[in-house]
């Protein structure tokens, strides 16, 4: 019940945040040089045709009037209409959002797959050869930009070995799963080093605790002590680190989507900016904001579930 009450409070607190974001985005995007109507009609359009389309798009009205109209539609669940794609913004987002969510889920999965075993091994072999290698090698991934890591993965596993497609998302579930592997690993390689360092530090602290020493003295195996007792307690702080960085990556997935030609909302955002598609950019920005809040909410809930001492307020 406390989780439900907490979630409802966070949903209510999201309303003024979204209003503030909508206000900022609405006016900032109009600072981008170029006329959406002229861009849509092309260089050979007559001034009369441009003016007529501006009237249809409501661009001739004062900015405040345009914002109030946008806000009224937003409160009705209408994100506007894209003249560039001749479709509702909600429909465009509904088509591309699942791809971005798949990318985030895939990136999180591969991050945990890489980070947890390495962090546990490094903590269990503190200051040993394995620990030094695990601490040194991931720093390389942390220092390289995501687009460069993605290109390297494409060259090696896509073009040279032919294990995975070099771009696109496919049409079937099998093609979706194969197409999301390399983008997910790209995200994981930028995120795993942070999680490894956090989880390793927490594991070392927990392994030196009195209750761990007591568990060893009772004859409990090292594997059971590390995996059954230490890992859960050490994971509490690392969950927060993971959640914060996933929230950060939510808005930066557009780079990975661009490299792998994924039809997600990040890719849609870039195309819409170039096309001066104001309604679509506004709608996608609001969706990104909601996704960040949702990730932070899930992080807080997971933190509370792992550590009952944490009170959700």
Layout of secondary structure:
Blueprint: H1 2-29, H2 36-41, H3 47-57, H4 63-75, E1 81-82, E2 87-88, H5 89-124, H6 129-143, H7 146-160, H8 173-207, H9 210-217, H10 222-259, H11 265-274, H12 278-306
Antiparallel strand pairs: 1-2
Helix pairs in contact: 1-12, 5-6, 5-8, 5-10, 5-12, 6-8, 7-8, 8-10, 10-11, 10-12, 11-12
Strand order of the largest sheet: 1-2
Give the mean pLDDT: 76
| Overall CATH architecture of the largest domain | Orthogonal Bundle
CATH homologous group name of the largest domain: MetI-like
Class by alpha and beta content: mainly alpha
Poorly predicted runs: none
Task: Write down how many β-strands occur, each being a DSSP E stretch of 2 or more residues.
Answer: 2
> Could you describe the largest sheet, including whether it forms a barrel?
2 strands, antiparallel
Integer count of domains: 2
Total helical segments = 12
Question: Which range best describes the helical content: under 10%, 10-25%, 25-40%, 40-55%, 55-70% or over 70%?
Answer: over 70%
Family: Belongs to the binding-protein-dependent transport system permease family.
Organism: Microbispora bryophytorum
Main location: membrane
Protein name: ABC transporter permease
List keywords for this structure.
two-stranded antiparallel sheet, 2 strands, 2 domains, 78% helix, single chain, MetI-like fold, mainly alpha, elongated, 313 residues
């Amino acid at each position: 019940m406390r989780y439900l009450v907490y979630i409802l409070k966070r949903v209510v607190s999201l309303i003024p945040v979204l209003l503030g974001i909508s206000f900022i985005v609405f006016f900032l995007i109009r600072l981008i040089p170029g006329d959406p109507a002229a861009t849509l009609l092309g260089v050979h359009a007559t001034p009369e045709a441009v003016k007529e389309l501006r009237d249809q798009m409501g661009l001739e009205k004062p900015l405040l009037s345009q914002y109030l109209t946008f806000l009224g539609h937003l409160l009705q669940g209408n994100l506007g209409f894209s003249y560039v794609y001749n479709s509702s913004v909600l429909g465009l987002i509904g088509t591309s959002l699942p791809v971005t969510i798949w990318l985030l889920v895939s990136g999180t999965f591969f991050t945990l797959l890489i980070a947890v075993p390495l962090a546990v091994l490094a903590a269990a072999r503190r200051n040993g050869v394995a620990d030094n290698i695990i601490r040194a090698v991931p720093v390389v991934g942390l220092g390289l930009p995501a687009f460069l890591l993605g290109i390297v993965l494409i060259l090696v596993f896509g073009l040279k070995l032919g294990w995975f497609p070099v771009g696109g998302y496919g049409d079937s579930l099998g093609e979706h799963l194969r197409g999301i592997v390399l983008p997910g690993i790209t995200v994981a390689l930028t995120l795993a080093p942070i999680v490894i360092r956090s989880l390793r530090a927490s594991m070392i602290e927990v392994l030196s605790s009195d209750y761990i020493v007591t568990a060893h003295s009772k004859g409990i195996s090292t594997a059971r002590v590390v995996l059954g007792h230490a890992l859960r307690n050490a994971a509490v702080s690392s969950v927060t680190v993971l959640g914060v960085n996933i929230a950060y990556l939510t808005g930066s997935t557009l780079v990975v989507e661009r490299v792998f030609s994924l039809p997600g909302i990040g890719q849609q955002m870039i195309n819409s900016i170039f096309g001066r598609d104001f309604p679509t950019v506004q709608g996608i920005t609001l969706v990104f904001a909601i996704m960040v809040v949702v990730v932070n909410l899930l992080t807080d809930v997971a933190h509370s579930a792992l550590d009952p001492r944490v009170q959700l307020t």
